[in-house]
User: Fold this.
Amino acid sequence: MSKLFAVIGNPIEQSRSPELHHAFAEKTGVDLEYVRRLAPLDGFEASVRDFFAHQGTGMNVTVPFKEQAFALCDQLTERASIAGAVNTLWMTDGKLYGDNTDGQGLVDAIQTLNWPLDHSQILIIGAGGATRGVIYPLVKAGVHKLVIANRTLARAEQLIAALKHTVPEAQLQACSLDELSGDFDIAINATSASLSGAPLNLPESLHFDHAYEMAYGKASSFLDQAAKRGVPVSDGFGMLAGQAIEAFYIWNGIKPDLKDFI
Ligand code: ATR
Assistant:
């Protein structure tokens, strides 16, 4: 019997995870079925329990349930506990395990592009859950200085205060989006501006050599401005494929090559 996996979220029709996992399965010879699962906004826990009670092997969790998944787990990996959010679930000996592969997915995507991370200076715009999930993996990949710029400065400061003890080797700085300036190896957009279609105005005094947009499949004013500056750009499909590969590896013990899927 093939192993059963699911991605759970609300909404869920837009998810490309089934397509990715079926492509990995074909490449690696793993026999699996991977489905979309719509949970009611007040029914996340019941849906997860039901899935694992009916022979489910693993679940990916997407918006808006990653924090609820974190709270539900009996065991967390270190990176999930630092992220405060879980995107990958599995059950072992009756215990629910949770990991967060989003940050490593971003690192894998950037490394596959051959953009520099080791000893780099990185700018992340945004200070929400998406940023929180990637700080630790970026620093473990060698990032030296990380500036977190946010429309609401206090939120960037709070995030740094909460996480700086987990990455003592890196220099973390908060900055307001209006006052942003300086030179960076990579600028990463982790705001939800592209999802809502809102413009994000980058100051002239800001310079960067590469631009990574975490969202994918949407118009991005961040990427438009970066492209006008003539720097290499990427949307977040590589990150999506990267986090999926990391989850596939946890569940199946085989790691497909990201290069084959982006
Ligand atoms: P996520 O979990 O996707 O990170 P979130 O926690 O709601 O979502 O955070 C959204 C982030 O996008 C925040 O950093 C938000 O800035 P504020 O903290 O100032 O609200 C940022 N954001 C959303 N729309 C934006 C816009 N139009 N311009 C700039 N920043 C925006």
Observations:
- The CA atoms of residues 102 and 243 lie 5 Å apart.
